[in-house]
Amino acid sequence: MRVTSEQRLEDGVLEREFTLGEIPGVLWTPARAASAAPAPLILMAHNNGLPKRDPRLVARARRTAVYGYAVATIDAAGCGDRARSAAEEQARADLRRAVQAGEPADEIFESVVGPLVEKAAPDWRTTLDALLALPEVGGPVGYSGWTALGIRLAVTEPRIAAACFFAGGYVPRAQREEARQVTVPLLLLLQWDDEGNPRQRALDLFDAFGTREKTLHANLGGHTGTPPFELDDKARFYDRHLGRAATSAA
Amino acid sequence: MRVTSEQRLEDGVLEREFTLGEIPGVLWTPARAASAAPAPLILMAHNNGLPKRDPRLVARARRTAVYGYAVATIDAAGCGDRARSAAEEQARADLRRAVQAGEPADEIFESVVGPLVEKAAPDWRTTLDALLALPEVGGPVGYSGWTALGIRLAVTEPRIAAACFFAGGYVPRAQREEARQVTVPLLLLLQWDDEGNPRQRALDLFDAFGTREKTLHANLGGHTGTPPFELDDKARFYDRHLGRAATSAA
To answer: Which UniProt keywords apply (chains A, B) (predicted)?
Structure first.
């Protein structure tokens, strides 16, 4: 793991950009005493890759670090700025066009996102190994964000102890099946009027998750309209399941 | 308002039983300095009336008082131990029998609960007047619990500034209509497998509420299975909208 830039932010959070072989990523860690216990790690994934250009998502990561968590995000294979084949680019363009035109997008979605989850998951596991080797980062590990990848990681990666999924209207077939095998505590965050995520499918997915400890939070509004207080609720969800580091910045 | 018993509980909360004409009630107020600002009031209603015999509901009221709120509950007209006509008792028995037998209960429900809401609402308003006259109790006022009555109060009582509704699977026609007129911030708490409250109806009701600021929390399990952390979430909902008294007990 090679740190390519390092910056102490005004809220005390340390922001480090890194590369791990081909994988670029960002790690935010809370301000803390040298003697403090390692901060529990939260993997924050987005299906467009790194949220570096999305101030909303970066603010979310920083705030979660202020709560006392180490937060990491990467451009996994096929996501964000990572190289894609001409066929992959074409499939993505087809998907965008179909969604914008309001055409049925299930099959194109399946052909784009199904393989994306398969390719991305190993990069997240590689990242998990590297980050947990840092003295300031510890387990148990939480997951946040992209639902389909989160399902795959939750059922294949025993180090993940709790997960918060967002949206969930479109999830590839394989992950809709795997949802029944998810047994970690779960918070599903749903925007009631999410223009790109059919509500009933998200509700069906919530119903399908195998875990006994699952909570759904739904708020009015579109995809990017999640109210700020949900970030606090999410932090408390992690606090319950990951045990917040005692010496967090605040 | 006549206080019939008064008890300081070990968490510092003062529990007072009172009568207000024919209305029996209980008021819980937080431990606080004499100079403290009045505690915002939360009306906690249950369609079976006073939760005095339900330790789960009493614990909920006390905990909310510990958070810094004044919490009140009454036996409104037709509820709990209040006198009922032979016809009313018969209708209630018919409803119980139909529900237990798994028969369609909509019409009986309508004939029992429709009039109950009409009769109960004025008693809650009388109580609100009396409680807000106490120096230690103030506004803005929150509402918690029984959905149908809460809808009626939220649309007819401008002093109610935020409401937390529970279940909502069965709501009389009049209140299903009135739901569109509810404009105060709302938290709807739903048990995903509530044996007595059809899930889809509760989701439809959430959809129908007129307020722009509404949040749904759903958890797995039956009617009485709401996880303890939802009480904390609810307190934070009230904190956002009612402004918790600065000098609460803790």
So the answer is: Hydrolase
